[in-house]
Model the fold of this input.
Amino acid sequence: MTNTAPLPEAAPAPRKRRPPRRVEVSRVEVLSPAMRRITLTGAELEGFAPAGPASYIKLIFPEPGQTEPTRPLPDGPRAVSMRTYTPLAVRPEVLEVDVDFVLHGEGPASTWAAQAAVGQVLFLMGPGPGYAVDTAATQHLLIADDSALPAVETILADLPASAQARVLLEVISAGEQRALNSPATLDVRWLPRGSDHRSAGQALEQALRSLPPIAPEARIYLACEAAAMRRLRQLLIDELGVERSRIVGRGYWKLDAVNHPDHDYGEDS
Ligand SMILES: Cc1cc2nc3c(=O)[nH]c(=O)nc-3n(C[C@H](O)[C@H](O)[C@H](O)COP(=O)(O)OP(=O)(O)OC[C@H]3O[C@@H](n4cnc5c(N)ncnc54)[C@H](O)[C@@H]3O)c2cc1C
Done:
């Protein structure tokens, strides 16, 4: 008699992580009181390519007492001081990546960025995928706080000239305002919230409520503090009549939470 019992399923092959790349700070630019642009470079950036708008990288920072982070082993434990950032500009021809850091106060990433100097070393992993811009859409609404300002800039750069984008940006103070570039026609509102992070999302909510009706075909990108993102997502769906499939939500950080996980899309709300 033949044995008809199903064969045991082969275990899925473990996902191969790209090896971390050692990078050095080659430039530090003070963009505004709370934003530093840090250029990272190094021979190990060979083959690192842009991954589209709002993509992400993981950066590993030194632990207290270290001058340089330990190189993570290929399948070793995750580094404690690893955080998620946006590769704002990637220049493969000169092996450079620019990253804009919000100086929000606490945490290994923010405190490192506040003291960053040329020659300091980090490890970089990624990139991972970001936001698929619907280039056929003519109306876009981008709602973000300062942590997602770099992501918004990469999205704006990708919009076609035929598009119109309304942009609501919540920042710590009016001093954070800067020129934004895009082939599209932009209507940008900067919304200072003050340095109390507990009010995260309130200025965005007020601004959203005062907008003219949102076009039903508009594509919406919403990235900010995680609880605020959920509130704003619900506001868009329940009160402003937006079809939920038109919203891409991202919780970029969470009040009182260290290293908030980076795949928080708010679809549980
Ligand atoms: C896909 C993705 C891309 C991102 N890109 C960028 C980027 O390009 N630039 C950028 O600055 N951030 C970016 N972020 C957000 C960044 O990963 C978080 O802010 C991260 O928590 C910072 O780490 P930390 O070590 O400074 O603070 P943590 O150790 O994670 O947190 C310490 C404390 O700081 C608070 N906190 C964390 N972030 C903020 C903030 N932005 N504002 C106020 N309080 C905060 C936390 O609530 C916590 O109480 C991105 C996040 C994601 C998911």
Notes: The radius of gyration is 20 Å.
